[in-house]
Design a protein that fits this description.
- The mean pLDDT is 89.
- The protein is globular and about 55 Å long.
- Strands 3-4-5-7-8-11 form a 6-stranded mixed β-sheet. The protein has a 3-stranded antiparallel β-sheet with strand order 6-10-9. A two-stranded antiparallel sheet has the order 1-2.
- It has a single domain, classed as ECO RV Endonuclease, Chain A, CATH 3.40.600.30.
- By secondary structure, it is α+β, with helices and mostly antiparallel strands.
- It has helices at residues 3-10, 12-32, 43-59, 108-117, 142-152, 154-157, 174-182, 204-211, and strands at 34-35, 38-39, 64-65, 77-79, 82-90, 101-103, 123-129, 134-140, 158-159, 170-172, 187-192.
């Protein structure tokens, strides 16, 4: 277990700050990616940056390496020497975990090959957004993932895309992610996802930069 990541959940000051800030920051991310009333795919990148900025704020820039190649299948950021995968989903229910990607592999043959050889290599920081309800922020250690994979088996752990569809990657099964989140060694911080009553001007900061001499 990464004791540094665990401290995000054990330090009452940063834990309270996360509970206060996440609804605001994730709301801004959604509004900045919204087009014609719909949230665009780029929201995933913005959400990831929110979590990375949390790590940088708490641990310092010198300990956080964001220079991770886009070819990495799991790793999104490195804290000290520990690779971390960042996962986020939005759902309408606090017990629904569908749609979280294990890998963005879309080719059917490669997806099957991936599922047969997959072994978790990163700790996971997972944000479950559930507007109007309780969601949570989780730290799922690599060992918890490995133990759960061994316990329930690959067929139950990984949800392969259906043949003939236009898939967006390989997902954790709802059963697997629920087991990971409920594991006794997983750290959990409840988040009350109350949407802020605020209007976000997505062009304001760019206009202000144009106005500068």
């Amino acid at each position: 277990m990464n004791n540094s990541l665990a401290s995000l959940f054990q330090d009452p000051l940063i834990a309270r700050r996360i509970q206060q800030k996440f609804p605001l920051l994730f709301h801004i991310a959604e509004e900045e990616s919204r087009r014609d009333g719909k949230i665009g795919m780029e929201v995933g990148t913005l959400r990831e940056r929110i979590v990375v900025s949390l790590l940088t704020y708490y641990f310092g820039e010198e300990r956080v390496n964001t220079q991770v190649p886009t070819t990495e299948s799991e790793k999104d950021v490195v804290l000290d020497d520990s690779p971390i995968s960042i996962k986020t989903i939005t759902s309408s229910s606090s017990d629904s975990f569908r749609g979280v990607k294990v890998s963005w592999t879309v080719d059917t043959a490669k997806a099957k090959e991936f599922s047969e050889s997959y072994n978790p290599t990163c700790d996971i920081l997972f944000v479950h957004i559930c507007w109007g309800h309780l969601g949570a922020f989780y730290y799922i250690p690599k060992k918890v993932q490995q133990d759960t994979l061994a316990s329930i088996g690959r067929e139950c752990y990984i949800k392969l895309p259906k043949v003939g569809t236009n898939p967006r990657g390989i997902e954790f099964s709802n059963q697997a992610l629920k087991a990971l989140c409920e594991h006794p060694e997983t750290h959990k911080l409840a988040i009350d996802w109350i949407k802020p009553d605020m209007k976000v001007n997505i062009y304001k900061r760019w206009i202000e930069l144009w106005e500068q001499d």
